[in-house]
Design a protein that fits this description.
Blueprint: E1 2-8, E2 11-20, H1 22-38, E3 43-47, E4 51-54, H2 56-71, E5 75-79, H3 83-91, H4 95-98, H5 104-109
Parallel strand pairs: 2-3, 2-4, 3-5
Antiparallel strand pairs: 1-2
Helix pairs in contact: 1-2
Length: 110
């Protein structure tokens, strides 16, 4: 899985590409946590528009990243999830915790 990481005014934009599965979840979680900790107290938006598939390990990584962000005084928001990711978030009720937004701009705007 490839990650694009950009600093933005008011936060961090992380754009993973590919599949967020058992194979890539650990590396994803470690890289994102490192970036979140170095930008303490800001909003982190994960743009899921290029994630074609997510499994339970990927969901666990997102929850761990949310925890890391909140412990540092910041927040983590999801943006533009694909249909498959939206369905998985809804089936697991994680859409209530992670509350995905339709666009990156909307995620930064809250």
């Amino acid at each position: 899985m490839q990650l694009d990481i950009d600093s933005r005014d008011g936060g961090l934009l992380i754009t993973p590409q590919g599949r967020l599965t058992m194979v890539s979840a650990r590396s994803f979680k470690e890289q994102v946590a490192e970036k979140i900790q170095s930008s303490s107290g800001s909003v982190t938006v994960i743009d899921l528009s290029q994630v074609e598939f997510i499994d339970s390990s990927g969901l666990g990584a997102l929850v761990a990243c949310l925890k890391t962000a909140r412990q540092g005084g910041g927040d983590l928001r999801l943006a533009a999830p694909s249909e498959q990711v939206t369905m998985i978030l809804a089936m697991t009720n994680l859409d209530r915790v992670l509350r995905p937004r339709a666009t990156v701009a909307e995620a930064f705007g809250d």
